[in-house]
Structures are given as C-alpha cells and as structure tokens.
C-alpha cells in the first residue's frame, strides 16, 4: 500500500501521507506504479485563491510570486493558510509498468485528487498567468500515485470547463446520495452559496433527485443569475455568516427548515446558520474548506440541534461523470459554468 | 428565537451566536427565558486542558492563571487555541418566568451545552484548584438560555462521575445510531483512542448495538486496561497519527477494514489513519475537537476513499440518559470512569 498512496514522495515529516506532509519530492522520474503528467493548467481552489488575492490586495505579480514560492517550498500547491489546493489538467507523459490507472501516454486528463497531495514542479515561472484568476496556465510536471484518480477529458466540453466541473464534482454526487437516502420523504434542500460552482451543481443534483430547492445567495446580482437560470425553486438573499438571518430566509423560502442544507460558501463562519436552517433529523453537508470542525460540532451541541453533519468528501465513485452529465442535462448550468470560465 | 439561543448575551462581534462570539456578557442578572446556575465545578475539555498543560509545562499556577484570564476576557471558558470548552455542574439559583427548561431552584444539574457558549463568571479565583487536573472546583455563576440543555444529576452516580460521562455523552449515542443504520449487515467498529472516556463509551455502545469491536490505543498500559475491562473484542497498539500503521493494525484486528471508525484521540493528525482504516461504504465519526476539516475532506479525496465522514454532534435526544445507562449496564466501564475521576 505504501507506494500506492505516495508515501515514498513524502520528504517531511516522515511517515505521514502526502496531503498531511509539509514537503513532497516532486522529481519527474516515476516509480513503477506512478504516472507523470505534463501540466497545462492549474485550477486553484476558490478559498485558496481568495486568501491569496485578499492578502496581496489583488496584485497579480505578488499572487503569482507567492504561488511559485509555495510550490517551490512544498513540492505541491498546498496553501498553508487555507489548507486547500485545487486541481490540474495536462497530458500523460509516462505510465509506470505497474500503474493501476487506466491511462496511456498522450491522454489529456484532469486530476481528481487535490493539488494538496500532488507532487508538482513548475518550470515556466507561471509566465503566462497574470495572477488575476484562479485558472493558472502552467508548464511543469505532476505525479499521480497508484491510488490517485484522474479522468480523461470529455470530447464535448472545453478543457477549462471540464476542470471547473471536476473541481467540485464531489458536491453534486454527495448531495444526490443524501437526498436519495431520505427515500419516501418529501425532501427540501437549501444551498448556501447557490450561485457558485459547487452550489449550482448541488442545486441541480438535488432537484433531479426529487427535492424542492432553495438557493441562498449573497446579493441581488447573484439572485438574478440563479433566477434567470431557473436553478432553484426559491431564491433568497442573506449573508451566510448571519445565522439568524439565514435561518429566517431558508424557513421562509421552503415553508420550514430544510431537510438538507448544503454549505458551498467559501468564507469562514457559516456553520451555525446552516445548523439553524436544518430541521431536526436533517443533514448538513459542509463542502466549504473554510468550515471549522469545532464550530460545527460545538454549534450543533449548543443549539441542541439533532442534525447529521457531513464532511463533504471530494470523492465518490463516478462523481466526475455524474457532474459532467448534469451539464449535459441542464443547459442553464452549462451556460453558468461557461460564463464563469470566460470570466464574466 | 433570538433570546432563546443567547444572542442578547453576545458582546462582540455583534450578530453571531454565543459559541462563535469572542466575548459574552456574563452578568448574573437573568432575562425572562434564562436560568442562573451557582457553579460548583468545571470539567475542561480534554483537548483544551492538554493544550494548557503542555503550554505551561504542567505548572498548575500558570494553568490556573490562564483559565482565569480566558474567562475574565471572554465571559466564557472558550480556549482560543483549541476552540473547545467543557461543561460544568452547579445548583439552579433562579429560573426566569419564561424558561422552557424543566428546572427549579435547588436542582443540582450538569450543563450539556459547551462552556464555549455558556456565559460564565468566576468569583473565587479558582482558589480550590491546583491546576493539575481537568476537573476544576469553582465558585461563580453561569447562564442557560431557552434552548440550552441541562440534566439533573442522577442519584446513583457521584456528581464528578456524571459530569465526566455527560462531557462525552454525544459519542456513544451517535455511535449507537450509526451502527444501527447498517441494519442487517455484519458491522465492525474500530475506535481510535479506545481507552479514553468517549472511546470506552463508544466501544461499549457499539458492542451493545451488535457490532464486533476493536480498540486502538497508544501504548501497552492502555491496552492492558482495555483488555482487563473486556471493553473490546480486539485491542491493538498504534500511534493514531501514523495512518499506515493504524490501518494495518485495524485490518489485522478485525480481519479487514472497519465498517465504522470512531476517532476519539484528542491530538491533531488522526484523520488519514481513520479514513485508511475504513472499508468502502463505511463511516468515519470524528469526535476529537482536534480534527481538521480540510485534512479529512482532502484526505478522503486524495485516497479515493468512498467513506461517509461525520462531524461528531455533541447532542442527540436522550444522549445523557443513554450514556449513564451504559455505566449501569456495564460495571467495567463504570469502574474505568471511577478510576479516571479519582485520578488513577
């Protein structure tokens, strides 16, 4: 098992898995069960990019310099403040003789494991990136382990579009599963951050699974976009960090607290609003990397809230295909993603 | 709703719930739906006490001084480093005319909501506490809100014992529920930190719900205690922060990965071992306040692990009675708790 999860790539501290490691060995030479990717583009996690952009007040050169420094220091794009990474696309260069992954040289793939555990070397100084967006053109190499997950890019989607979808594809797949677990019940789903990538896909998955849905968004502009796209049965505007206001809006939009509340807002402090918005016996799914474990655990206890709280797992079998299929089935979602990738 | 969850007690920042607040108003005068408790004893959360003890290298006077400073500054015993609190026992002094809680003056109660959201004033300088244990004799006042939870202390248990049980009573109740959710399947449960308070109760709850159990403990001394008490079907020694070793031990002890892994080890870095120890389709329940949300979310993704990950909710209806009843049903567990409370 040790090689298949990348233990041989961990430089420090010894013995931890690559995600927990401070520093990885990003050498391009591969072991027998590894795969080397020629990198084309990184897609930084939204929380990570936002932290960098805020810290450097939107100065693209400074943002680029810090990304380069993180990768050079850690051997991976693992934001030390947010703890999050992102994903990448590239072309398979070499497949080890014992790799279990269904890949061959020349395949254009997206990695579906986080950049926080992917050995990464950047060789072009990110010269083609202006630092102004979470989509980062890059040259260099990345390594996949035996137990990594990568998807060959679909022919009918632009690579940037596929990457944006794959980055959040765990969210709609888990939302679908949780809605279906309440079989036979009338299910309502509130999505905090319903206008974003994971939010719009989660809304779509919930509705296709049979739930009545409400999107909670931060301003009228986002509300308009969600309404125009017909993404949710109800749309409400509230600051997700204001628990009293959020729960009031959700209760009004759905005629009561939600069976399931999905948190897709990548700012800290949304735990209590989500818990207060959820009915007894309901479920909160936390997809935001800004979620605080103690705030959620102690918040539910302090509110005497009998809700199931899930840490959003980025992996479910078939999650990438499921998410891409949502774009094919619901053109309005595809248009939202296309607009986002185009920078509108 | 605003008063019932304590919003009127929040001094800063405005608008957040008491648990998220930096500072609470701990004045002893109560509103119509509040209850005032005359404090007798605090029980600090294990992670919080450990952090303080480590920081001050076991110096009891320094630990006491910092606890006093935290309570004076924040109006609650909310450790700013660990984000955790604990619980308290005391006697009901005054019940507001509109309080929904089934309490009356003179009742000896334990609060079942965290100290991180309980307005607290200490009036004796903690003069009776030597700073050497997480059980803190104290004089002062605490406030319960309309939506708080408190339990009248049972007649057949010493107060210190009841408090120690209540402090972790969410863990066995949720473990019981999750085991029963796998109805009809043969369920195995691994508990990381099986010798501790929440661990031993979780092991006991899992077994009584029909699961085959394994305790993972940190050394031979703990292994001996768990074996002597007959708490688990198998006992293994491993460092819970070493994912490869933990998963090897669990797999060996149970004849395969666990259906359910319960994390009760109050040190950081146990997420990946728990995930690796759990079978596809299984569940990880995180009860440790040292759990990192991103480490769990990204770890499962990075390991392509299809496991459900639960944030351990400290509240389930009936959890306090359930946990106390485990002590009554299993004398060996009661003896472990008695020894722990006595400081052995």
Residue runs with pLDDT of under 50 for 5 or more positions of chain A: none
Count of distinct structural domains of chain A: 2
Rounded Rg of chain A: 20 Å
Count every beta strand of chain A, where a strand is a DSSP E run of 2 or more residues.
Answer: 14
Number of helices of chain A: 11
**In what range is the share of β-strand residues of chain A?**
15-25%
CATH superfamily of the largest domain in chain A: NAD(P)-binding Rossmann-like Domain
- Classify the fold: give the CATH topology of the largest domain in chain A: Rossmann fold
Query: What does the overall shape of chain A look like?
Result: globular
Helix content of chain A: 25-40%
Question: How confident is the prediction overall: mean pLDDT of chain A?
Answer: 94
Termini separation of chain A comes to 44 Å
Instruction: Profile the largest sheet of chain A.
Output: 6 strands, antiparallel
Q: What's the assembly state of these chains? A: homodimer
CATH architecture descriptor text of the largest domain in chain A: 3-Layer(aba) Sandwich
Please describe what this structure looks like.
The structure is a homodimer of 344-residue chains. Chain A is an alpha/beta fold and 344 residues long. Chain A has 2 domains: 7-153, no CATH class; 170-343, 3-Layer(aba) Sandwich (Rossmann fold), CATH 3.40.50. Chain A has 11 helices and 14 strands. In chain A, helix 4 packs parallel to helix 5 (197-208), helix 4 crosses helix 10 and helix 10 (319-329) crosses helix 11.
